[in-house]
Prior knowledge:
Shape: globular
Strand content: under 5%
Structural class: mainly alpha
Mean pLDDT: 97
Low-confidence stretches: none
Number of strands: 0
Number of helices: 4
Largest sheet: none
Amino acid sequence: MTRALxxxxxxxxxxxxxxxxxxxxxxxxxxxxxxxAYRTGLVHSxxxxxxxxxxxxxxxxxxDALA
Length: 67
C-alpha cells in the first residue's frame, strides 16, 4: 500500500506540473491494480482529492476508476 500512496502523490505532482492526463492515468491505473480491500482510507481520499482538482477527460477517467 505504501507504493500506491507514493504513486498517488506522484500523480498529484503531475497535475501540479500541468499534465492532468498523465496524472489521471497514473492514479486510475494504481487504483485499478489495488485489491478492493485496499481501495479505502488514505489511498481513496488521495484519489478523490486529485479527482476534485481535475476537469474534462482526465476527471472522467479517474472518476470511472473510482466508481
